[in-house]
TrEMBL record:
It comes from Seonamhaeicola marinus. InterPro entries: cNMP-bd_dom, cNMP-bd_dom_sf, Env_Response_Regulators, HTH_CRP, RmlC-like_jellyroll, WH_DNA-bd_sf. It comes from the Bacteria. Pfam families: cNMP_binding (PF00027), HTH_Crp_2 (PF13545). GO terms for molecular function: DNA binding; DNA-binding transcription factor activity. This is Crp/Fnr family transcriptional regulator. SMART domains: cNMP, HTH_CRP. The keyword Electron transport does not apply. Residues 130-195 form the HTH crp-type domain. Keywords: DNA-binding, Transcription, Transcription regulation. GO terms for cellular component: cytosol. PANTHER family: CRP FAMILY TRANSCRIPTIONAL REGULATORY PROTEIN, LISTERIOLYSIN REGULATORY PROTEIN. Residues 5-116 form the Cyclic nucleotide-binding domain. CDD domains: CAP_ED.
């Protein structure tokens, strides 16, 4: 998100994390801006019965967990490493110094946060009122739209990840994807989903 030449002038720490390491827990106070150097992070909540509801997956060069920094409230979700990951960690005060010195980056964050808000609103609506096929196709279309790729888009999510992002069971996702393929709303090639 923040160009590396700019970010590195503020001397962020680089944390090396292993798969399943926690970056932060739900309810903790945010003290840092996080940007992935390489690896993968999952932000999620646990339901009362212990089921994960995934808020999002974040990968190389993406930032995560910024809204609580801006809003000055506790993290509403936890962040966990999906793989060996290196993360830039910049103290909150230096992050705000960077934004004040680089208004164009601040504007990029405003746009990013707006996109995430729209995504959250779409997903909340999908989960509350629509059947599985509609939830899945809406998620996949959202991913394609955000990728800005023309033509066929390869979905780089596993069935498990689609399940976690839509609040559905994996078995339901598998059946719904097969049904969507029969309805010609997506294509499956070598177990990969394309839309």
């Amino acid at each position: 998100m923040i160009p590396l030449d700019v970010l590195e002038t503020y001397q962020p720490a680089v944390k090396s994390l292993q798969k399943n390491d926690m970056v932060f827990n739900e309810g903790e106070t945010p003290n840092y801006y996080y940007q992935i150097k390489n690896g993968s992070i999952k932000m999620y909540n646990l339901t009362e019965d212990g089921k994960e509801f995934v808020q999002g997956y974040f990968n190389d060069n993406e930032s995560f967990g910024e809204p609580p920094l801006f809003g000055d409230y506790k993290y509403p979700a936890a962040a966990l490493c999906n793989a060996e990951t290196k993360v830039y960690q910049l103290p909150k005060d230096k992050f705000f110094e960077l934004l004040k010195a680089h208004p164009e980056i601040h504007l990029k964050f405003t746009k990013l946060l707006c996109k995430r808000m729209v995504y959250k609103a779409k997903i909340a609506r999908e989960i509350s009122i629509y059947p599985p096929e509609h939830r899945i196709i809406s998620l996949l279309k959202h991913l394609k739209d955000n990728s800005k790729e023309e033509g066929t888009f390869e979905v780089n999510l596993t069935r498990q990840q689609i399940s976690e992002l839509t609040g559905l069971r994996v078995e339901t996702v598998i059946r719904a994807i097969k049904k969507l393929e029969k309805e010609h709303k997506l294509t499956i090639k070598n177990r990969k989903v394309f839309i």
